[in-house]
Specification:
The complex is a heterodimer of chains A (372) and B (413). Chain A has 372 residues and is of the alpha+beta class. Chain A is built from eleven helices and eight strands. By secondary structure, chain B is an all-alpha fold. In chain B, 71% of the residues lie in helices and 0% in strands. The longest helix of chain B has 31 residues. Classes of the chains: A alpha+beta (372), B mainly alpha (413). The interface between A and B is large, with 55 and 53 residues.
Chain lengths: 372, 413
């Protein structure tokens, strides 16, 4: 009885506090002549977004969507690159080669202890903007063009039938997964070697190649070529995007490297010794004994780093890349109500975070050790 | 599974002490190089390629630091970088605070040195190296001898207090928490009592203030949230979980934007609006409390259930059980994680530059716009300097936290 009364009192207290704050909010908004609802989302945004077909006359809700897409664009690419670099550096820290080990340690201890915002701004003002101007742009192997306007990388151009071809590639993926599952079942039933990666990969390549020929080159790869001040072909990554990506990747990779190193070290030494006793080769020992167990230890902190990277992409506001936070800031600057805009901003980040947590939990559960 | 003698485990003889680890092998240089750099063909290749790349990068970096960089922008603005717009006739206040803090740190180190094993001379040097490097760099950039003299005085005070600490009677260690509290209050009063308001603070001073204020103020809130999350009342649990997960799901910058644009809307009409520094501090505290709560929750989960059961058995009330038995053990185990949170908060304070507070990063960027330095591309110089300041603080703290972790034996019991 007392317990119930306490809880009711607690909830009433929290509710009353929220009600009071929201009441103040409504009064203050009305006094300032700002809208109290969300109708303002239909007003023209008046925000000019670089490198985007978005027009300032489009409504605010569209601008927010563009921001969300740009945030996801930075986060997804950043997560992929940071994972690759982080694993490389983490493994390098355990190398038998003294120079590799110490080089990786210096990288980790330097980048990890400097704020990511400083790294991003450094990459922008002191690296990307200091690249040579477009008329003297440096080109690497004809694949990448560097200049202070960002970098241009090869990109596919969609031709006729590209849409159908996308469907074919999707189907090929599905087919490859099915074949892989079938091979796993065969292995479980008969014990014959499954080679599921080989089988799945072969299916994927064959179906995709067949589709590519059938639709007569639906996608062509264009390489950037520079003539004077104009770069033709490829896709342009603006200097802000490039700086954000480099900063985020360098910072997050230093954290991922520590996670990878710690997880590999956390696999009990007996496992390695048992693998040696079974006369597994060095590769087999890593692939079948050490890495699967390290992966299980690694996954929760790794998901945490992915969350951090996504949240840190909001720091692009400091270099002017038009992601969610920057666009929200501009919307507020155009005399739109701040409380609602910031609430939308927080809810969108919360949704992104929950999405990443959800995926991580699903993967985590599928990898978890089955115990009684 | 066979029934093991688990319940008589305490009666068994202690296991024999672990054998001493073998002494590290000392190889002649030629063999060391062969074993560590050229032991296989791919390691030889890696050594050559990576060695060339790293050597080139190191050469470029050294050339920049000692010949290419134009450090006069730092020399001219050193005071601005350290304290921002803090009134120049009040500068004795930060110096007084530094003296107080370094004396207290020396005293603490002296008291700790009596129980801890004495580190080898080389280890002691390695520990102090980042801080000494920072002091050396700052002294090199100072244009008058006064700062160098005051730094020397602080170091002397620190060393004197350390010597005094080693000589004090054993009972004195009991008063150490009180000394630390007095230090914090004393340093704070030295900076504020009758002095300039928070809004004139800036530079490294503001960075330190936001980080320290953030962790100190968020600590009690975080402990309450952690206890609430493990409460037996579902309603309390729900509210705490909701708060923690909401805050952990959004970036700090959105909370700072909230502090900048939105916090004022929550106050009643006519209520005096706090300054931007205070609003940023509120945002930082709200943010950090959620992370502190998760750290403390981890510590609470690590306390064996038998502890609270034993407390109940001797008739302690639930509140006394929590405050006297569970929390002390939980907090002791999470000290290294709290230091880690403090480090990440220290780095995160750089975000206040985005909402226009004059912290170290903001000042560093702003001075490149001064008439004498505008358009000369000095961003690399100021950002390298700011990075070095952040790095020396964070690196020393993370090293200290690792040592602490080993000494407390977290995760080993």
């Amino acid at each position: 009885m007392l317990r119930a009364a306490f809880q009711v009192a607690f909830v009433v207290l929290v509710g009353a506090l929220l009600w009071y704050l929201l009441g103040n909010l409504r009064t203050n908004l009305r006094v300032s002549g700002l809208p109290t609802g969300f109708d303002y989302l239909d007003r023209p945004a008046g925000v000019d977004i670089r490198d985007s077909p978005f027009r300032p006359s489009q409504p605010i809700r569209d601008a927010i969507v563009v921001g969300l897409v740009n945030t996801v664009r930075g986060s997804v690419v950043g997560i992929a690159l940071a994972t690759v670099l982080g694993i490389l550096v983490g493994v390098a820290r355990l190398s038998t080669n003294w120079l590799v080990r110490k080089g990786a340690a210096v990288y980790v201890e330097t980048l990890r202890n400097v704020p990511v915002l400083v790294t991003i701004i450094f990459m922008y003002t002191a690296v990307v903007l200091r690249l040579p101007p477009i008329s003297r742009a440096s080109e690497w192997l004809g694949l990448i063009v560097f200049s202070n306007r960002g970098l241009v990388v090869p990109w596919g151009v969609a031709g006729t039938g590209a849409r159908a071809f996308t469907g074919v590639v999707g189907g090929a993926f599905a087919l490859a997964v099915i074949v892989g599952l079938w091979r796993s079942r065969r292995f479980d039933e008969t014990g014959e070697p499954h080679h599921r990666v080989l089988w799945g990969g072969a299916v994927l390549v064959i179906v995709t190649a067949a589709g590519y020929v059938a639709f007569s080159r639906p996608v062509t790869l264009t390489l950037p070529t520079r003539e004077g001040r104009i770069v033709q072909g490829g896709i342009q990554l603006g200097p802000e995007y490039a700086a954000l990506l480099i900063g985020l990747v360098l910072y997050t990779a230093s954290h991922i490297a520590e996670i990878v190193r710690g997880s590999i070290l956390a696999v009990p030494k007996g496992q390695t010794e048992a693998a040696n006793a079974l006369a597994l080769s060095g590769f087999q020992r890593l692939r079948f004994v050490v890495l699967p167990q390290a992966l299980r230890i690694m996954l929760p902190p790794l998901a945490n780093q992915y969350l951090n990277l996504t949240k840190n992409s909001s720091l692009a506001v400091a270099v002017g890349y038009f992601e969610l936070t920057r666009i929200t800031g501009q919307i507020i600057a155009n005399a739109n109500p701040a409380p609602q805009s910031i609430a939308i901003l927080m809810l969108l980040y919360l949704a992104l975070s929950l999405l990443i947590s959800l995926v991580a939990n699903i993967v985590n559960r599928s990898l978890a050790l089955e115990t009684r | 599974m066979t029934a093991g003698p688990t319940d008589t485990a305490t009666l068994e003889p202690l296991p024999p002490p672990e054998p001493e680890p073998p002494a590290p092998r000392r190889l002649p240089p030629a063999r060391w190089v062969r074993e560590n750099l050229f032991n296989t063909w791919y390691n030889s290749l890696l050594t050559v390629v990576l060695g060339a790349a790293l050597g080139w990068a190191a050469l470029r970096a050294l050339r920049f630091v000692f010949f290419g960089a134009r450090w006069e922008i730092i020399q001219t603005n050193l005071t601005l970088l350290m304290v921002g717009r803090y009134p120049r006739d009040q500068l004795f206040r930060p110096w007084l605070a530094i003296l107080i803090v370094s004396a207290a740190a020396g005293l603490g180190a002296g008291l700790a040195a009596r129980t801890a094993p004495r580190p080898a001379r080389w280890d002691a040097f390695k520990r102090a190296a980042p801080g000494l490097a920072l002091l050396a760099v700052l002294a090199a950039f100072a244009r008058t001898p006064l700062p160098a003299l005051l730094v020397a005085a602080s170091v002397a005070a620190c060393l004197a207090a350390r010597t005094a600490g080693t000589r004090l009677p054993d009972k004195a260690a009991r008063w150490l928490p009180l000394v630390y509290l007095g230090t914090v209050v004393g340093a704070y009063l030295a900076l504020t009592a009758g002095g300039p308001g928070w809004d004139s603070w800036g530079g490294l001073l503001l960075t330190l203030y936001l980080a320290l204020g953030g962790i100190v103020l968020s600590f009690p809130i975080g402990v309450l949230l952690a206890l609430g999350r493990r409460s037996s009342f579902p309603a309390v649990r729900l509210v705490c979980v909701g708060y923690i997960e909401l805050i952990r799901g959004v970036p700090l910058i959105t909370l700072l934007l909230m502090g900048q644009f939105m916090l004022g809307f929550f106050f009643p009409q006519g209520f005096p609006r706090p300054g931007l520094v205070v609003r940023a501090l509120i945002a930082i505290v709200l943010f950090t409390a959620a992370y502190v709560a998760e750290i403390v929750r981890g510590g609470l989960q690590g306390v064996p259930k038998g502890q609270s059961e034993a407390a109940q058995a001797i008739g302690l009330s639930p509140v006394k059980t929590t405050v006297l038995i569970v929390l002390p053990q939980a907090l002791r185990n999470v000290i290294p994680a709290l230091v880690g949170q403090f480090i990440s908060l220290f780095k995160d304070t750089s975000l206040v530059a985005i909402i226009g507070l004059l912290d170290l990063l903001f000042v560093a960027q702003a001075i490149t716009q001064q008439p004498g330095f505008l358009g000369q591309g000095l961003q690399a110089e100021v950002l390298v300097f700011a990075s070095f300041v952040y790095w020396s603080f964070c690196y020393s703290m993370s090293r200290a936290s690792q040592r602490l972790e080993r000494r407390l034996g977290v995760g080993e019991r």
